[in-house]
Specification:
mainly alpha; 18 helices; Growth Hormone, Chain: A; 2 domains; single chain; 513 residues; globular
């Protein structure tokens, strides 16, 4: 017997379903506001760093920790934050994490010393790690598999990826028009508003009857922190440095111990079965590579437009508007194309312009101008990332039961955050080696200023080329390993038992989740 679509159901049934959809949309809007804040803070400080250095007398090393303090705590605590949401309730952890993030933002804006600023950044990372997994887990639990979830993931992707580039624009505007302190203050009213309305607008989620896996949390957190720190330290001190080697050794030992603990734990912080599915594991690796290349592109391209093209902070931020607009537009378009063309073809079609755009940036020189040498590859990157990340997120979350949605969502965030950290550290190391090589072979007849510019741009072009290799590897992994089934039409989950009365029951469960 054929199953009627929503449009074929009686009007009374469709009207009864409207409050459920409205509540889901309100839930989506609330959690995405918080996610935007968290994502913005990964890049909004980039353009403001020189002003921070002047205002608080930060050294070059201290300035790097404005980024690294956030990265270490955020990346290191994401797994714990995701599982805490499952055990303690997503609404509780979301509100607590966001409140901590908001208070830390206020402290960062009021900082009068480097110690206070770096502490505030570290606490921001803790709050973000607690709140962020609850965002994606709430989306997975609230929207059934099918077109509804695809549309919700499209909105999440637009915020997650568009927010990173939007942070560069906002950082330039706030720094030039107000003060570097406003890159932190801007979070306060938004965070306070979301914390105030969340208890009334977000439904309670059922708690999992379990205890937190403390041993797994400690080993994963310290292991991830050691891994991130090792790459960050290698960028400045070199791969042969004793501290760098020690960090990597500690990371291998701790993460190996983490895997051993999780394989034996009755209630693991991260169910290892998440990695047994080939498509899901491949999607995690592809995301790590893609985000690593993208964050490296942000880091070097902001310097290129300011140091080579001599853009002001505001103009440098505005230079990224076309890419941001393309990414947001494609993120909203992709969900409508998935049912028609399939998720994997769309994912591959998105990665091709990403590889092309990054390879184009690898050809920059001292004579490259914004148009077309920078604008066109940025548009390719925006279009490609907008298309690719919706089906990539679908691959990471498909088939995950609600009780493990927090852990699966935290893995997506871990790959994104750690990918950005590790990718940037590797690309900075590539950049430094290329600069040393260019400096050892000076241009004939060049002035000191011309030689310095040549060395800088050669390092950047080499880093962009390395990022293109990251993206090409991601494309190969997607083609070889990821298998995605096409979403079922009209909001059906496509799973057995989710039709008729069972389908209504699943909708009621989603409404109360």
């Amino acid at each position: 017997m054929s199953i009627p679509t929503i449009s074929q159901l009686p009007s009374s049934v469709r009207q009864a379903d409207k409050p459920v959809r409205d509540r889901r949309n309100i839930t989506l809007a609330v959690v995405l506001c918080a996610q935007l804040m968290i994502v913005l803070d990964m890049t909004v400080v980039n353009v403001a760093l020189p002003s921070m250095a002047t205002g608080l007398h930060l050294s070059a090393t201290g300035l790097s920790w404005v980024l690294n303090a956030y990265t270490l705590t955020f990346g290191g605590l994401l797994l714990l934050g995701g599982r805490a949401g499952d055990v303690l309730g997503r609404r509780n952890t979301f509100i607590a994490g966001l409140a901590l993030f908001t208070l830390a933002s206020l402290a960062g804006g009021l900082a009068t010393s480097s110690a206070v600023l770096l502490t505030a950044r570290a606490i921001q990372g803790v709050g973000g790690a607690v709140a962020s997994p609850a965002v994606l887990a709430t989306i997975v639990a609230s929207f059934p598999e099918g077109r509804e979830r695809v549309r919700a993931l499209g909105a999440f992707t637009a915020v997650a990826m568009g927010g990173a580039s939007l942070g560069l624009v906002l950082g330039g505007m706030l720094t030039q028009w107000a003060s570097w302190r406003w890159v932190f203050f801007v979070n306060v009213p938004v965070g306070a508003a979301v914390v105030a309305v969340a208890p009334r607008l977000l439904a309670r989620s059922p708690r999992v009857t379990a205890r937190l896996d403390i041993a797994g949390a400690l080993t994963s957190t310290t292991g991830m922190s050691a891994l991130v720190y090792g790459f960050i330290h290698a960028a400045s001190a070199g791969w042969g440095n004793v501290t760098t080697i020690g960090s990597f050794a500690a990371a291998v030992m701790l993460l190996g111990l983490f895997v051993a603990i999780e394989s034996r734990a009755q209630e693991p912080i991260t169910p290892l079965w998440l990695l047994r599915d080939r498509s899901r594991a491949a999607s995690y690796l592809a995301r790590l590579l893609l985000v690593g290349g993208m964050f490296g592109m942000f880091f070097f391209l902001t310097q290129f437009v300011q140091d080579v093209l001599h853009f002001s902070p505001l103009r440098a931020g505005l230079a990224f508007v076309p890419m941001t607009a393309a990414l947001l537009l494609m993120s909203r378009t992709a969900p409508r194309l998935v049912p028609r063309f399939g998720a994997k073809p769309l994912l591959v079609a998105g990665l091709v312009p990403v590889v092309a755009g990054m390879a184009w940036l690898g050809q920059v020189s001292t004579s490259t101008g914004y148009l077309p040498g920078i604008l066109v590859p940025m548009l390719l990157l925006g279009i490609g990332m907008g298309f690719a990340f919706v089906p990539l997120t679908m691959a990471s979350l498909a088939g995950v039961p609600p009780q493990d949605s927090g852990a699966a969502a935290s893995m997506v965030n871990v790959m994104q955050q750690v990918g950005g950290s590790l990718g940037l550290a590797i690309l900075v190391t590539v950049f430094g080696s290329a600069r040393q090589s260019a400096a050892a072979h000076p241009l004939a007849g060049a002035t000191a200023a011309e030689q310095a510019q040549h060395v800088l741009v050669h390092g950047m072009s080499t880093a962009f080329s390395a990022a293109a290799i990251f993206d090409a590897l991601a494309l190969i992994i997607v083609i070889a390993a990821i298998r995605l089934r096409q979403p079922s039409p009209a909001g059906h989950t496509g799973q057995a038992g989710h039709t008729g009365q069972a389908g209504q029951a699943s909708q009621q469960a989603a409404a109360t989740d």
